[in-house]
Write a structure and sequence with these properties.
The chain is built from 25 helices and no strands. The protein has 499 residues and is mainly alpha-helical. The two termini are 26 Å apart.
């Protein structure tokens, strides 16, 4: 006999869940080992393996899903199978329209939840996925109410042969032709290698500024999750992704000159002016600071021209990324909100695409598009403060991790200063990041909490030492702290306990 939600959660909590007491209610599910969380790329088999779990997620009511999944886990359902099923269920049941965001964050956040699991102690690794499960059900219900949309069968008559799929996909995407792109995406999944597919989707994900970076974010997160769960799940994911990337309002972009499309078109010509050995430049903190200063006032066109000039003058791409990542983080400092938050998460996605690509031209386009996006985010954000990431001052006196997160909501600039003081004083960055993740687990109640924390904590390692502490400290302008309210999942657990 299956346990009720109250029985399952009450038994799983055991000794209780206090803010300082951890996440003991997940212990009955068994820890997820680091090896399992890394997910070998071809492990999960479609059909008889993951399909029953997909149907479980699709058909179980929201109020019963967590207990049903916990029951399956106790009977042998693995973390990797659950992650694969969640991705497939998400793209089948949640429409990435009218905007690539909002309810579609249920899909966008899956990789972020996985990254949070991957970087967490074994006993905590289930919570982000359980949170993402509940988020999926909420989005599925919203989609049903709004439109009843579900991904339909592909038009098999239009699916191109493997040898023609890439060209057919490019032609369809250039024409913004949804039916042709849908069929071509299926053809790509069936007969084209993962790396070639990524090169195609990375370029189309970064080609326009619609939906404040969500297109590039979806490309990065979907391919990263597919790498984990296996390419055999690619077809519905690539079809969903193509549909999302073709979202526009007004006139067909193939026949118009919308502002969102201009940076890509300019940069496609600008790359021709970059020296052939641009990837061999020298690192320079001073050059990064100069480019950062340029990003504060430059237009998107001027920012891209400045990057080309820096590359031709011998500046390392890594130093350019320092300026771009720092500039994105600085926007969040200047005005904490959804638009500036996406300056950070889209930079994370474009940086990932840059590193994952094997094509120098694609890499250069990702760099230039990010240079264009930072000023576009700045303009979209409206009135900003004069805060500067390189002027952030550390707090006075000794600070420990608990002190960093003590009163974040009360004064975020002060919390950032405490974080900088802790890091500059030799504090363990890993300890600070682990605590940040745990507050997201306990306090985060929005997909952006997971998306942002995964992006900023990951990119800490990709920023050079001069900028690293400031970059991480800037995260306190959005990360939750001890003074935030418990999230809905924690509240439901406490209610089930009778607390």
């Amino acid at each position: 006999m299956r346990a009720t939600r109250r029985q399952f959660l009450g038994n799983a909590v055991g000794g209780g869940l206090s803010i300082g007491g951890g996440l003991g209610f997940l212990s009955r599910l068994g820890p997820v080992s680091a090896a399992e969380a890394k997910l070998p790329s071809a492990l999960v088999q479609y059909g008889g393996g993951v399909e029953p779990t997909v149907k479980l997620l699709e058909e179980t009511p929201r109020e019963r899903l967590l207990e049903e999944v916990a029951d399956r886990v106790n009977r042998g359902l693995s973390y990797r199978e659950l992650l694969a099923a969640l991705l497939v269920a998400g793209v089948r049941n949640v429409q990435p329209r009218p905007q690539v965001g909002f309810k579609f964050h249920a899909v966008l956040v899956i990789n972020s939840a996985h990254l949070a699991s991957l970087a967490s102690p074994a006993e905590d690794r289930w919570l982000p996925i359980f949170w993402a499960l509940d988020r999926f059900k909420s989005a599925q219900m919203e989609t049903k109410k709004e439109s009843g949309w579900r991904m339909g069968a592909v038009d098999e008559a239009r699916v191109p042969a493997a040898s023609k799929a890439a060209a057919a996909f490019a032609a369809a995407m250039d024409a913004w032709d949804e039916p042709a792109a849908d069929a071509a995406a299926a053809g790509l999944a069936r007969g084209t290698g993962r790396n070639e597919c990524f090169e195609l989707f990375a370029r189309y994900g970064a080609r326009d500024f619609r939906d404040i970076g969500h297109k590039a974010i979806y490309v990065a997160n979907s391919f990263r999750t597919l790498e984990c769960v296996g390419w055999q799940h690619a077809e519905p994911v690539l079809r969903s992704l193509a549909y999302a990337l073709l979202k526009y309002d007004g006139a067909n972009p193939a026949n118009s000159d919308a502002a969102a499309d201009r940076p890509w078109r300019r940069n496609a010509e600008l790359v021709k002016k970059v020296r052939p050995d641009w990837q061999d430049g020298k690192a320079s903190d001073e050059a990064s600071a100069h480019l950062l200063a340029t990003l504060r006032t430059a237009s998107d066109e001027e920012a891209c021209a400045a990057v080309v000039e820096a590359l031709n003058d011998g500046m390392s791409p890594a130093s350019i990324w320092d300026a771009l990542l720092a500039g994105s983080a600085e926007l969040l400092m200047r005005k904490t909100g959804i638009v500036t938050l996406h300056s950070v998460t889209s930079s994370n996605a474009l940086r990932f695409a840059y590193e994952a690509s094997g094509d120098p031209r694609t890499r250069l386009m990702m760099l230039l598009q990010n240079a264009a996006f930072v000023p576009l985010f700045r303009s979209a954000a409206g009135k900003l403060s004069e805060a500067k990431i390189d002027a952030l001052q550390p707090a006075e006196g000794a600070v420990d991790v608990a002190g960093v997160f003590a009163e974040v909501r009360k004064d975020r600039p002060a919390a950032a200063g405490r974080a900088l003081a802790y890091l500059n004083g030799g504090g363990d960055a890993a300890a600070l990041m682990n605590q940040a993740r745990r507050w997201v687990f306990l306090k985060g109640n929005d997909a952006h909490d997971y998306k942002f924390s995964s992006a900023v904590l990951e990119d800490y390692a990709h920023v050079s030492p001069r900028w690293r502490n400031r970059f991480l400290a800037s995260g306190l302008f959005y990360l939750p702290g001890a003074d935030a309210k418990d999230n809905a999942l924690v509240g439901r657990v406490r209610a089930a306990m009778g607390a």
